[in-house]
Design a protein that fits this description.
The protein has 449 residues and is α/β, with parallel strands linked by helices. It is built from 15 helices and 19 strands. It has a nine-stranded mixed beta sheet, with helices on both faces. Strands 14-15-16 form a three-stranded antiparallel beta sheet, with helices on one face. A three-stranded antiparallel beta sheet has the order 17-19-18. A hairpin with a 2-residue loop joins β11 and β12.
Length: 449
């Protein structure tokens, strides 16, 4: 593609892991609001859980997560008491005991938890929910701070999938992001996971990091591919130092421009798909036969704050400081500051800091954007079947985007809106054309490649 075309589409837009996106959540949604939402939940539908552990053994400078480094376990132990109390508190507000089909631990580094504390969490979940026999339970792992004993504990918890952080194997890049990690170290953890029969392995790789080049990225991908994970999640580095102050430690002069990022993205797609992986949306790849690839073939891939997923539960409960959940009424995010979160829970309050109640327009536009992000198109006929005449809010934007399209990226016949293959790399930018909130406030985002 021509550089001018890349620059025109590589603007700063949301990643669309939710709609409306998090910058539009507001403090008008609080613990009392959330209590009402939980009480109105349909008790017959399945439920998913996300547990946020906001602590790390080290602070990686590229990281965009809500986390903090700790060398002592005492802060984690204190947080655990609040997390367990929140599990009980949320369950008390639900109208009936719910079945749980998916549990995800994120962070931070969830494996910082001691095995006894991990088992306390399992006990609290089993007391308050019916965790299904075949539930998918996943955890994010920093291979530099985990060993056999820890992984055996997670296997005993019931983990079925592990997401192993790689980012980049080049020593110069690792030094620039404060994440030293050898290939041998990573390979050992992947092998150990397989030995323990935790077979659903995902590797996280990041492109656009400081001092990263196409040559260094190619070497990283070659080493990562040699481990033959079931999935890859390969993200563009989001440089947002106005949100994450530790990113100011990264030398901006060492970051690639949008044209080089685009070239890296194309290199990744070419290398990973050449090994037989299927591309899932903008940043995931799965082996044929993996559940994500099966869902892709069936048109059932979903997108949430963990990225692309097979989880179809209508409600996701977020637990822990800064955790975001989506229930049937809307989105709710817990208080970000760990101390304030713990204080709210210890006082018996649902620790909601902000959120947004979904209107019918939000649901229509959110469904269209999710379908664009997962399968690059949506049908007006299908949306009308679900939402009635409210779906017609999309018509004017669909027609406008087609009329403005000078690059042959879009087709729209009055029913089917589709992003053609040539334009799919820019689907985030195209999806932003339907976003009713985009540009309403001073929210800033990372570039779209």
């Amino acid at each position: 593609m021509q550089p001018e075309l890349i620059r025109r589409y590589a603007i700063a837009v949301p990643r669309y892991t939710s709609y409306p996106t998090a910058p539009h959540f507001h403090a008008g949604v609080n613990g009392e609001t959330y209590a009402d939402w939980l009480a109105r939940e349909d008790g017959e539908t399945g439920l998913s859980l996300y547990l946020h552990i906001p602590f790390c053994d080290r602070l990686c400078w590229y990281c965009g997560c809500h986390t903090k480094q700790t060398k002592r376990y005492e802060p984690v132990a204190g947080y655990m008491d609040a997390l367990l109390a929140e599990i009980e508190l949320v369950a008390c507000h639900l109208p009936k005991r719910r079945k749980v089909g998916s549990i995800h631990f994120g962070g931070g580094s969830p494996t910082i938890l001691s095995i006894p504390d991990l088992m306390r969490i399992r006990g609290a979940l089993d007391r308050n929910f019916d965790v299904e026999e075949g539930a998918e339970i996943s955890v994010e792992i920093d291979p530099g701070f985990v060993d056999r004993e820890k992984l055996e504990g997670w296997r005993a918890f019931g983990v079925t999938r592990a997401s192993v952080g790689v980012q980049d194997f080049d020593p110069k890049v690792q030094a620039a992001i404060n994440r030293p990690q050898s290939f041998e170290q990573t390979h050992m953890i992947v092998s150990l996971l397989r030995e323990l029969e935790i077979g659903g392995i995902n590797l996280d790789v990041v492109y656009g990091l400081p001092h990263q080049t196409r040559s260094s990225l190619e070497r990283t991908l070659t080493m990562a591919l040699s481990m033959q994970p079931e999935r890859f999640a390969i993200f563009g580095y989001a440089h947002v130092p106005w949100m994450k102050k530790h990113q100011t430690l990264i030398d901006e002069k060492a970051l690639a421009g949008v044209e080089e990022r685009f070239a890296m993205q194309q290199l990744i797609s070419d290398m990973v798909t050449a090994e037989g992986y299927l591309a899932v949306g903008i940043d995931h790849f799965a082996k044929p036969g993996d559940s994500l690839a099966v869902a892709l073939d069936a048109g059932e891939v979903k997108r949430n704050f963990q990225g692309y997923t097979t989880d179809s539960a209508p409600s996701l409960i977020g637990l822990g400081a800064s955790a975001i959940g989506k229930v049937q009424a809307g989105y709710a995010q817990n208080i970000v500051a760990t101390g304030e979160y713990m204080r709210a829970v210890n006082e018996g309050r649902l620790p909601i800091g902000k959120g947004i109640e979904l209107t019918v327009t939000d649901r229509v536009v959110g469904s269209a954007i999710e379908q664009l992000m997962c399968s690059y198109g949506f049908s007006m006929r299908d949306l009308r079947r679900e939402y009635g005449a409210a779906a017609d809010v999309l018509l004017a934007d669909a027609a406008r985007l087609q009329q403005q399209d000078q690059d042959g990226f879009i087709s729209f016949d009055g029913d089917r809106f589709e992003v053609k293959e040539a334009g799919r790399v820019f689907v985030r930018t195209i999806a932003a054309g339907f976003d009713q909130y985009f540009g309403r406030n001073a929210a800033r985002h990372s570039v779209a490649v």
